[in-house]
Amino acid sequence: MNEAPAYLPPKVWQWDKENGGKFANINRPTAGSTHDKALPVGKHPMQLYSLGTPNGVKVTILLEELLALGHAGAEYDAWPINIGDGNQFGSGFVEANPNSKIPALMDHSGSTPVRVFESGAIVLHLAEKFDAFLPSDPNKRPECLSWLFWQMGSAPFLGGGFGHFYSYAPFKIEYSINRYAMEVKRQLDLLNRHLADNQYMCGDEYTIADIASWPWYGAVVLNRVYDAAEFLDAGSYKNLGRWTHEIDARDAVRRGRMVNRYSGPLEEQLRERHDATDFESKTQDKIEASKG
Ligand SMILES: N[C@@H](CCC(=O)N[C@@H](CS)C(=O)NCC(=O)O)C(=O)O
Question: Is the dihedral of CA 242, 246, 248, 253 positive or negative?
Answer without folding.
Answer: negative
